[in-house]
């Protein structure tokens, strides 16, 4: 441990002070005057020497043994884990619920304050199930309701505000193999809405000849509810959940939501949220039947089902 730059006594100075008292017989006040320190300091080092020997003359840490206001260890580890995902300070602060300065202090002590100190990001592992219906990705996106165009259209946050309009929740589903998607809007994200959305999705895919055997969701309360688990059992569907804090595991649903926001929710000016909701089925139809996908070699999702082209009119649902 480093000695303070203005310290009167080093380890050797303390040893000399104690030796003059113990061996030479000087009084502590006389030895203290000779070394240019107070008598209280001389008594302190003499007491430590008698208790611990030469070890008692070394520096001690000024760190308190107990700090009630210290950040819990679980949060410190959570901050470090998010940083290893290459998240920025402010993003980590919002996620953990701690000030940005605290996040910076924790990361600096952990040696993670610079991005160059982080390990390279792990390679992306892509996967695809063998047949339609083997895995259905589910997710929910919260959107604000409005009764007049908002700031994205008007450019003014005051003139376009729809105060008290509330929220609506877009429940989305996408088949892992074919990328055929489905979406509906519910008034909330409770377990009841989740299982109703699941049943509606299963019926939609059934009309296309696809039987759902497994679903993948995040760890949201609605997906962990008893009513959703009961619905899965009745439908004969195996329910899997993603690993905590790993949204990339459900990446196909996350990507679908981003595409829906860019091409449907924020793609045009809607007079009110009901008009936006009414346009959702049309966009889903376009997504499945007409929109080329890079992951499918720029074919449409419906092309992966191998449907009879002579019955396309009946299949347009």
TrEMBL record:
Task: Quote the InterPro entries the UniProt record gives.
Answer: DNA-bd_IS481-type, Homeodomain-like_sf, Integrase_cat-core, IS481-like_transpos, RNaseH-like_sf, RNaseH_sf
One of the record's GO molecular function terms: nucleic acid binding
Cite the PROSITE patterns for this sequence.
INTEGRASE
**Residue ranges constituting the Integrase catalytic domain according to the UniProt record:** 128-309
Q: Do you know which Gene3D superfamilies this protein is assigned to?
A: Ribonuclease H-like superfamily/Ribonuclease H
Membrane-spanning residues where?
Answer: none
Kindly state a single biological-process term from the GO annotations of this entry: DNA integration
Protein name as catalogued: Integrase
Source organism per entry reads Salinisphaera japonica YTM-1
Phylogenetic classification of the source organism: Bacteria, Pseudomonadati, Pseudomonadota, Gammaproteobacteria, Salinisphaerales
